């Protein structure tokens, strides 16, 4: 059972009521480095599952002028496009300009959200296929938390495989609980099916703490372990599509692997077989 800790250690940062302000409706702390939160959704905000927006808080007043400017960062929307609220899954960087403060938000606080969603991790950037792979490390799980809850994902593909590699076991919990909730959701469960016919496959791995499956997903694919564990054929251009979201080194490594399997990188303007987005700027 995940502990939901009240965030009382520090004074939450209130932003003035700006046109782009949204109200926090839920906060969950998963580890000392990870939390998620939900907030109201602007009535006019339309987005495609997998896209990101700029969110943040007001920065400190300028010592000379006293003026405050918004402090914004890119964030994948973790909720699906049909959800009436928005969800975000966030790192806590202790000396990070934004997250050193954002980690202390509480229900009722306001955040700034610029309602201009963009991104490449969208179904439109891929050509039709039979099987889709979502490859995530760390908070790179966030866009897939959106796509995994989107019925279109299961309508478009016969098989959906999500891999998530983290250093420690606790860093997998948000994803694990999300997968459990999808399997228990009446509508999504019907689309996914059950038992042998279930379309959704979840492959979590850790690299620094003992867990049932240890290792980087890249290594586990290279030596065939991941395909054997999942009981699936290796990746082929005709059948497989992929979306990638992780740290830069991971993105580059898996991009090369996907190219070696024969897949080509797609974009909104030119759909192909795989797409990549950074989970953060290194
Ligand atoms: C397209 C895009 C989408 C993003 N989506 C998310 C998201 O959904 N959730 C999220 O937590 N962050 C996301 N980020 C990162 C986010 O924009 C910020 O960098 C993060 O919130 C930290 O902000 P900061 O001001 O506290 O520190 P920053 O000054 O922005 O970062 C300081 C350092 O912390 C490390 N770092 C930053 N973000 C992460 C991270 N997510 N995981 C591990 N280490 C990190 C990096 O080494 C970075 O140099 C995304 C970034 C991009 C480019
Ligand atoms: N996670 C923590 O406990 C922790 C604690 C304090 C500070 N930090 C700092 O926070 C930053 C981000 O850490 P993070 O753990 O969130 O993200 P991360 O360093 O991007 O690692 C996330 C996962 O991706 C794996 N990975 C890294 N490069 C890869 C590659 N080329 N191919 C395949 N897998 C790869 C890592 O495996 P490996 O373990 O094999 O690298 C790890 O399992 C780092 O600068 C780190 O020093 C992290």
TrEMBL record:
Gene3D superfamilies named in the record: Nucleotide-binding domain of ferredoxin-NADP reductase (FNR) module, Translation factors
Protein's recorded name: ferredoxin--NADP(+) reductase
Alphabetically ordered keywords of this record: FAD, Flavoprotein, NADP, Nucleotide-binding, Oxidoreductase
Listed SUPFAM superfamilies: Ferredoxin reductase-like, C-terminal NADP-linked domain, Riboflavin synthase domain-like
Entry superkingdom: Bacteria
Gene Ontology biological process terms, A to Z: cellular response to oxidative stress; heme catabolic process
Stated family: Belongs to the ferredoxin--NADP reductase type 1 family.
A Pfam family the protein falls into: NAD_binding_1
Enzyme class: oxidoreductase
PROSITE patterns, per the entry: FAD_FR (PS51384)
Annotated EC: 1.18.1.2
Entry cofactors: FAD
GO MF term set: ferredoxin-NADP+ reductase activity; nucleotide binding
The reaction(s) this protein catalyses: 2 reduced [2Fe-2S]-[ferredoxin] + NADP(+) + H(+) = 2 oxidized [2Fe-2S]-[ferredoxin] + NADPH
């Amino acid at each position: 059972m995940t502990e939901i800790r009240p965030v009382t250690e520090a004074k939450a940062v209130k932003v003035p009521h700006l046109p782009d302000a949204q109200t926090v409706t839920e906060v969950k702390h998963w580890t000392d480095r990870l939390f998620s939160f939900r907030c109201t959704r602007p009535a006019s905000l339309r987005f495609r599952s997998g896209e990101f927006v700029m969110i943040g808080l007001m920065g400190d007043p300028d010592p000379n002028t006293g003026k405050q400017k918004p402090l914004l960062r890119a964030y994948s929307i973790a909720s699906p496009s049909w959800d009436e609220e928005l969800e975000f899954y966030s790192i806590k960087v202790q000396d990070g300009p934004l997250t050193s403060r954002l980690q202390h938000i509480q229900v009722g606080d306001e955040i700034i959200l610029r309602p201009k969603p963009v991104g490449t991790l969208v179904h439109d950037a891929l050509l039709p296929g039979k099987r889709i792979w979502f490859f995530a490390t760390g908070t790179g799980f966030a866009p897939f938390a959106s796509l995994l809850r989107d019925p279109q994902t299961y309508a478009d593909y016969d098989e959906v495989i999500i891999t998530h590699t983290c250093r420690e076991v606790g860093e997998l919990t948000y994803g694990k609980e999300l997968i459990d909730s999808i399997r228990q959701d009446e509508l999504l469960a019907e689309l996914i099916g059950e038992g042998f016919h279930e379309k959704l496959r979840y492959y979590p791995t850790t690299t620094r703490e003992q867990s049932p499956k240890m290792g980087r997903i890249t290594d586990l694919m290279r030596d065939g372990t991941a395909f054997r564990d999942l009981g699936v054929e290796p990746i082929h251009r005709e059948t497989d599509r992929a979306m990638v979201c992780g740290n830069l080194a991971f993105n580059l490594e898996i991009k090369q692997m996907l190219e070696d399997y024969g897949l080509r990188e797609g974009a909104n303007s030119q759909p192909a077989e795989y797409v990549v987005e950074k989970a953060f700027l290194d």
